[in-house]
Amino acid sequence: MPQQRPPFGVLLANLGTPQAPTASAVRRYLAEFLWDKRVVDAPRPLWWLILNGIILRTRPGRVAKAYASVWTDEGSPLMSISRQQQQALSSALKAEFGCDIPVALAMTYGEPSMEQAGRELRQAGVENMLVLPLYPQYSASTTAAVFDRLAKGLKACPHLPQMRFVNEYHLHPQYIKALADSVREYRAEHGSGDKLLMSFHGIPERYERQGDPYPSQCRATAVAVAAELGLADDQWLCSFQSRFGREEWVKPYTDATLEEWGKAGVKRVDVISPAFSADCLETLEELDVENREHFQHHGGGDYHYIPCLNVRADHIALMTALVKDHTQGW
Ligand SMILES: C=CC1=C(C)c2cc3[nH]c(cc4nc(cc5[nH]c(cc1n2)c(C)c5CCC(=O)O)C(CCC(=O)O)=C4C)c(C)c3C=C
Ligand SMILES: [Fe+2]
Ligand SMILES: [Fe+2]
Fold first, then answer.
1. If DSSP states are collapsed to H, E and C, what string results for 112-179?
2. Where does this protein hold Fe(2+) (predicted)?
3. Which ligand has the shortest distance to the CA of 202?
4. Protein residue with least CA distance to atom 38, ligand 1
């Protein structure tokens, strides 16, 4: 009996993370990540010299310590949450479509690779593939990098599946509502801060000038969440974190904002990070630890970090809706 083919398969994509919280594993990860021209577009071979001569000699040790502080029994938080999302989405799609829909996980950098995920879907008989990068806001540095890496991974594949690609979902009503509900539920249990800071991962200002829509999509997400929550203008702000390198990044900066609010005597701030679909180093360490210390060092009061959407039921329902919307006719 020939096995029945699934109507389609889903390739869930995210950034990737080191294999271990050690300097050598972080060096391997950063070497691949920071060599991607979509991430750092500095002219070669000068960038090769800076990356290999300075950054990969100095950064991995410090960053490995930060990873070690958030590492779990299931590994890197980003990997363990991504695996849980993969399983939860797979169950939700089975319930929605009434049959097994293969869901593979792939990372742009490191493992599981695009090649591995592609092979897994092919072996499951997938002929139609939906690529769902878990980046709500489109950026060349993330979403387009998924596309590039997937295309590279499929070079050896003689018969490509039919493909569709989700570019972004920064204003999807279920995304906005899930973010707002995560704040509402948190505040119902822990009380409300004077301010809600929506801190997004940044990119260089120059990338925005060159046409990357990411910062404007982040601002639009923040406006929509504030509207959904009925916040007044002085009750929220959109800021950008995780600066890397010497040039100016999009502003306002998260750390500078928290410093200003601390000095102004803000008694309590609540912080969410809507660009991250899963908690990771940048939220659990930079936002929940470093920026908390920064705010309080400058005179700020209570600091509440509200987790990413991770495996919340409404987040999995959003992914299911994205899959349904983009697989019409398959
Ligand atoms: C959410 C979207 C992201 C955008 C946009 C983004 C752009 C971007 N990032 C760097 C440099 C680094 N980012 C690092 C970690 C990191 N970045 C994202 C997401 C986005 N990056 C995530 C989910 C993570 C965490 C990964 C994890 O393992 O938990 C790092 C590594 C850590 C460090 O060394 O500080 C770097 C470096 C650039 C240059 C950039 C845009 C040009
Ligand atoms: Fe990043
Ligand atoms: Fe960071």
1. CCHHHHHHHHHHCCCCEEEEEECCCCCCCCCHHHHHHHHHHHCCCCCCCCEEEECCCCCCCHHHHHHH
2. 201, 282
3. 1
4. 39
Q: What pLDDT is attached to residue 2?
A: 43
For residue 260, the tally of other CB atoms under 10 A from its CB is 16
Quick one: which ligand is closest to 273's CA? 1
- For 298, residues 6+ apart whose C-beta sits below 8 A from its C-beta are 258, 259, 262, 263
| Ligand 1 within 6 A of CB of 276 | yes
CA proximity to 120, closest of 266, 11, 1, 251? 11
Q: Is 76 touching ligand 1 by the criterion CB < 6 Å? A: yes
- ipTM for the predicted complex: 0.98
pLDDT mean across residues, the chain: 97
The answer to the question of whether 201 is labelled as a binding residue is yes
Q: Is residue 202 classed as helix, strand or coil in its secondary structure?
A: coil
Q: Find out whether 282 is annotated in a ligand binding site.
A: yes
Please tell me whether residue 100 adopts helix, strand or coil conformation.
coil
What digits encode the pLDDT tens for the residues 189-217?
999 999 999 999 999 999 999 999 999 99
